[in-house]
């Protein structure tokens, strides 16, 4: 079969990938004989399991050296599940040898030091083997395992692996640093499964932050073949379930699985789809233990989840993230868990006694450093009194105020977190910008300038590489979209008559004046404005229903497919995106709903947009809403109503089922639309942090509270026109609250939504979306 020129790039990429696998593929070993050895080198010298799914050998860790490890060998990430020398990488040319007396020796070529990785000398070891379970073993002639990597885990356990009493997992120091980090978990000798912080850099346990309460009965932690993880008693009865695989949502036969204590102290079971072209291949997280480490870690000694003076914020999309309070920056930008330091000179006692205005207090709401010692406490006092007391006290770095109570603390501060459920107000002492006591001097200036120049060079190089990769991704995406359009056109004659025009590159270059008038850009492409000299003006004939709803989707006029030039030509939306004109015509919301209804029910094949947000809704010259940007869209087969795929969309608009590895339906678009509808009603973003006080505002929570307390006027922010028709506002809010229910089955269809907005159906009272 001959390939057309347009397929050459994709074919080349696939060929290169296959070549890279073939050049790295080792001999398949069942038994590794005594005397065998591996050398640390760039082509990943390793021994593979019979199926090739796991490998044992050397992995190059950047420029730091080589790690002797076990990893998933059939996925591009080569995810490591066990390592022997995380604390001490070896250099190129180092070896690992299965000696004649049954030892596994790692020899560092730089120092000549011999490190015993596994030793069963004198027990009759005849060979080693890398098993398909991910377990590396030393065995005798009867294939009885005398040493197993499963019995000496590092940070990960795999299906069929168990943790007995006394077993420990250590979190790695960082994502690509496999030395022992700041957290561990263990099944204690008393049977309790406990997570600890460590006395880092020592690896002894410090303070526990999560446990199963199975002391006296816990015997093993089992990761079974079905993907469930649980604590059992000695008689096999299940005492505590950490992760239960939903076999209706995920077929374990089609997924690789692991469970890892990550560098941030969170224990996460992961799944990764095996070879299946219909599913995006990436590790997905099913469960977080603990669910919120920011509020779980309460060390008496130690910096907490993020280090001294830092703040931990838990995010449903990204998990825990570390940040510095205002006026502070990270001690080490490459290791955020080291905490934060002041970027100004602290207040001297002389400055405090003079009661000058060299310092002020920056207010941060819902912020606390939980167990940091309070050296002074006052009650009852006013907030102003608390502020003045801290400003006049050279030992006071941060004051906390709530309900007529004032605490004063000094740095270093530990266990910092931002928690929306907290009503604490932190008052952070900051030196004024015009103060002469800021860090200055010729040496520091040179150092700062050098750092800025270096950062600038790194940014320039990384930006250039990023833009190059984006260009490649854009070309591939445009080709994919065009190919899908062509394929759908052949399969579904009901959209016959769209009459896409094939433009030449020179036509479009001339029309856009050399691509000078940029309208915007996204993750995959840049948008330019242009004027075409000639284009067919005949309007395609469509069924009446399609005409009514298709008008709310942006019109594709044509394309260009000349070598590397792959361009889509859309009609110009003269009024830009909904993001820039979010709160104008009330018909906008109904137009978006009709557009989604067309995608979900009236197209020849059901389409899930997967990224409904203001930036992807364009407005024409009559302010008619047009849904755009189908780069993340999912086209379902004629016999499909759901699919499983990796998370798609934009933070704040993503439905909760994405994070639970559940099948995805059109209801994810309904959820995103509900968030968007609240933004249109309330004239503000779905998530905001006020610049003045760091106060978080979650729009969905606020909207429900206002609705439930009959205070909808608070949502309108002085909109007199909306206030005059508060009943219509209430119906819109009720519609939005139904759309954002946690349970997808409770959400209405887009047909129901359009009828709610049109007023043709009654809307029942919506439950609290947070608890549905």
Automatic annotation (TrEMBL):
<keyword id="KW-0472">Membrane</keyword>
<dbReference type="GO" id="GO:0005524">
    <property type="term" value="F:ATP binding"/>
</dbReference>
<keyword id="KW-0067">ATP-binding</keyword>
<dbReference type="InterPro" id="IPR008271">
    <property type="entry name" value="Ser/Thr_kinase_AS"/>
</dbReference>
<keyword id="KW-0723">Serine/threonine-protein kinase</keyword>
<keyword id="KW-0675">Receptor</keyword>
<keyword id="KW-0325">Glycoprotein</keyword>
<dbReference type="InterPro" id="IPR011009">
    <property type="entry name" value="Kinase-like_dom_sf"/>
</dbReference>
<dbReference type="GO" id="GO:0016020">
    <property type="term" value="C:membrane"/>
</dbReference>
<dbReference type="InterPro" id="IPR051343">
    <property type="entry name" value="G-type_lectin_kinases/EP1-like"/>
</dbReference>
<keyword id="KW-0808">Transferase</keyword>
<feature type="domain" description="Bulb-type lectin">
    <location>
        <begin position="31"/>
        <end position="151"/>
    </location>
</feature>
<feature type="signal peptide">
    <location>
        <begin position="1"/>
        <end position="24"/>
    </location>
</feature>
<feature type="domain" description="Protein kinase">
    <location>
        <begin position="513"/>
        <end position="771"/>
    </location>
</feature>
<feature type="transmembrane region" description="Helical">
    <location>
        <begin position="457"/>
        <end position="482"/>
    </location>
</feature>
<comment type="similarity">
    <text>Belongs to the protein kinase superfamily. Ser/Thr protein kinase family.</text>
</comment>
<keyword id="KW-1015">Disulfide bond</keyword>
<dbReference type="InterPro" id="IPR001480">
    <property type="entry name" value="Bulb-type_lectin_dom"/>
</dbReference>
<dbReference type="Pfam" id="PF00069">
    <property type="entry name" value="Pkinase"/>
</dbReference>
<keyword id="KW-0732">Signal</keyword>
<dbReference type="InterPro" id="IPR036426">
    <property type="entry name" value="Bulb-type_lectin_dom_sf"/>
</dbReference>
<dbReference type="Pfam" id="PF01453">
    <property type="entry name" value="B_lectin"/>
</dbReference>
<keyword id="KW-0245">EGF-like domain</keyword>
<keyword id="KW-0418">Kinase</keyword>
<keyword id="KW-1133">Transmembrane helix</keyword>
<dbReference type="InterPro" id="IPR024171">
    <property type="entry name" value="SRK-like_kinase"/>
</dbReference>
<dbReference type="GO" id="GO:0106310">
    <property type="term" value="F:protein serine kinase activity"/>
</dbReference>
<protein>
    <recommendedName>
        <fullName>Receptor-like serine/threonine-protein kinase</fullName>
        <ecNumber>2.7.11.1</ecNumber>
    </recommendedName>
</protein>
<dbReference type="InterPro" id="IPR000719">
    <property type="entry name" value="Prot_kinase_dom"/>
</dbReference>
<dbReference type="GO" id="GO:0004674">
    <property type="term" value="F:protein serine/threonine kinase activity"/>
</dbReference>
<keyword id="KW-0547">Nucleotide-binding</keyword>
<keyword id="KW-0812">Transmembrane</keyword>
């Amino acid at each position: 079969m001959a390939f057309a020129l347009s397929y050459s790039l994709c074919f080349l990429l696939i060929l290169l990938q296959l070549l890279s696998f073939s050049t790295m593929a080792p001999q398949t070993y069942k038994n590794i004989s005594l005397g065998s050895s591996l050398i640390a080198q760039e082509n990943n010298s390793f021994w593979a399991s019979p199926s090739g799914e796991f490998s044992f050998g050397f992995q190059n860790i950047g420029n730091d050296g080589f790690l002797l490890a076990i990893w998933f060998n059939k996925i591009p990430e080569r995810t490591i599940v066990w390592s022997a020398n995380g604390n001490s990488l070896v250099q190129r040319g180092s070896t690992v040898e299965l000696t004649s007396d049954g030892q596994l020796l790692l020899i560092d070529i730089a120092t000549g030091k011999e490190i015993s990785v596994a030793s069963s000398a004198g027990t009759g070891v005849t060979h080693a083997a890398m098993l398909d379970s991910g377990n590396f073993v030393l065995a005798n002639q009867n294939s009885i395992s005398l040493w197993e990597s499963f019995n000496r885990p590092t940070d990960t356990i795999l299906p069929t692996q168990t943790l007995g009493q006394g077993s420990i997992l250590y979190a790695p120091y960082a994502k690509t640093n496999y030395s022992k980090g700041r957290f561990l978990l263990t099944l204690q000798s008393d049977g309790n499964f406990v997570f600890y912080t460590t006395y880092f850099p020592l690896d002894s346990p410090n303070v526990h932050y999560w446990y199963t309460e199975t002391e006296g009965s816990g015997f093993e932690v089992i990761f079974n073949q079905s993907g469930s993880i649980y604590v059992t008693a000695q008689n096999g009865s299940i005492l505590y379930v950490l992760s239960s695989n939903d076999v209706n949502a995920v077929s374990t036969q089609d997924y690789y699985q692991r469970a890892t204590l990550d560098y941030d102290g969170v224990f996460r079971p992961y799944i990764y789809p095996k070879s299946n072209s219909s599913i995006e291949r990436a590790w997905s997280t099913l469960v977080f233990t603990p669910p919120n480490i920011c509020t779980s870690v309460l060390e008496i000694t130690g910096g907490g989840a993020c280090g001294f003076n830092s703040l931990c914020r838990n995010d449903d999309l990204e998990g825990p993230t570390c940040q510095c309070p205002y006026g502070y920056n990270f001690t080490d930008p490459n290791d955020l868990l080291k905490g934060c330091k002041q970027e100004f000179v602290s207040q001297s006692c002389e400055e405090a006694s003079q009661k000058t205005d060299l310092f002020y207090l920056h207010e941060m709401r819902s912020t606390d450093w939980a167990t940091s010692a309070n050296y002074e406490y006052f009650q009852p006092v006013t907030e102003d009194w608390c502020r003045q007391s801290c400003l006049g006290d050279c030992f006071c770095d941060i004051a906390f105020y709530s309900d007529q109570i004032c605490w004063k603390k000094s740095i270093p501060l530990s266990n910092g977190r931002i928690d929306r459920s907290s009503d604490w107000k932190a008052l952070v002492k900051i030196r004024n910008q015009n103060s002469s006591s800021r860090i200055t001097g010729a040496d520091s200036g040179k150092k700062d300038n050098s750092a800025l120049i270096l950062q600038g060079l790194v940014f320039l190089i990384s930006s250039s590489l990023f833009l190059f990769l984006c260009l490649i991704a854009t070309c591939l995406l445009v080709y994919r979209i065009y190919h899908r359009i062509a394929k759908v056109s052949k399969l579904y004659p009901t959209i016959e008559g769209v009459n896409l025009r094939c433009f030449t590159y020179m036509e479009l270059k001339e029309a856009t004046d050399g691509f000078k008038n940029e309208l915007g850009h996204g993750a995959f492409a840049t948008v330019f404005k242009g004027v075409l000299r000639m284009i067919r003006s005949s309007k395609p004939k469509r069924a009446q229903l399609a005409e009514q709803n298709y008008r709310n989707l942006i019109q594709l006029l044509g394309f260009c497919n000349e070598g590397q030039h792959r361009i889509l030509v859309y009609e110009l939306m003269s009024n830009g995106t909904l993001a820039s004109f979010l709160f104008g015509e009330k018909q906008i919301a109904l137009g978006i709903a009709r557009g989604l209804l067309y995608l979900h029910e009236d197209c020849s094949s059901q389409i899930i947009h997967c990224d409904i947000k203001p930036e992807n809704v364009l407005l024409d010259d009559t302010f008619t809403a047009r849904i755009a940007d189908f780069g993340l869209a999912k086209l379902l087969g004629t016999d499909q109503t759901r699919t499983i795929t990796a998370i798609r969309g934009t933070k704040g608009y993503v439905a909760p089922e994405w994070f639970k590895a559940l099948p995805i339906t059109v209801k994810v678009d309904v959820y995103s639309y509900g968030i968007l509808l609240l933004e249109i009603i309330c004239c503000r973003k779905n998530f905001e942090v006020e610049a003045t006080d760091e106060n978080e505002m979650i729009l969905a929570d606020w909207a429900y509270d206002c609705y439930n307390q009959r205070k909808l006027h608070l949502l309108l922010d002085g909109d007199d026109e909306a206030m005059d028709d508060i009943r219509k506002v209430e119906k819109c809010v009720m519609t939005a609250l139904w759309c954002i229910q946690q349970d997808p089955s409770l959400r209405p269809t887009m047909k129901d939504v359009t009828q709610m907005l049109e007023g043709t159906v009654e809307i029942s009272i919506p439950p609290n979306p947070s608890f549905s």
